[in-house]
Amino acid sequence: MSQRTVLLPADIERALVRIAHQIIEHNRGIDGVVLLGIPTRGVALAKRLARNLASIEQQAGNELDPASITGQLDVTMFRDDLRRRAPRAPQPTRIPPMGVDDKTVVLIDDVLYSGRTVRAALDAVSAVGRPRAVQLAVLVDRGHRELPIRADFVGKNLPSARSERIGVELAEIDGADAVVITDATDTQTREAE
């Protein structure tokens, strides 16, 4: 199985800083913006983005508590493939104290692929409130969309074959930061020989 690292820790940090600046610019500030990470890695990315937003705001002379705008949104029970996939224990949904009503919710995930996770996230958001707007930020967009969904903020576009697997590793979960592409056809080819 061939594997190659396409983003190193510095690349990931640079992408998250850029996304934080884009969120501020696109929303003309951070007032009324809520970041909701989609478990598992989207939650860690949301916390990092919130820290970057706080740092940028601090440089502008504004105070922002990163925890006050960050939450997590479990989409497990809103997926359309529950019958196909192995069951996964639902994670708690944590909404920041300000709620999501009339706020701009930025959904955060590690990889955008078919769009089905984001569709489930939109249903999950609707179950907890009525945001003014919903935006999407992803670290990696790998293409192969099955639904008409696109990200507003993308760290890196990585066009990939369907046979490839994009793995995002984060220090909070995996002990180190990296984005790795693994080609599963190598294994299948060797097994067939």
TrEMBL record:
For this UniProt record, the keywords arranged alphabetically read as follows: Glycosyltransferase, Transcription, Transcription regulation, Transferase
> Which residue numbers delimit the Phosphoribosyltransferase domain?
12-155
Location of motif PRPP-binding in this chain is 105-117
Entry's Gene Ontology BP terms: regulation of DNA-templated transcription
The record, for SUPFAM superfamilies, names:
PRTase-like
The role this protein plays is:
Also displays a weak uracil phosphoribosyltransferase activity which is not physiologically significant. Regulates the transcription of the pyrimidine nucleotide (pyr) operon in response to exogenous pyrimidines.
**NCBIfam families reported in the protein's UniProt record:** PRK05205.1-3, PRK05205.1-5
The protein in question is named Bifunctional protein PyrR
Source organism per UniProt: Pseudoclavibacter endophyticus
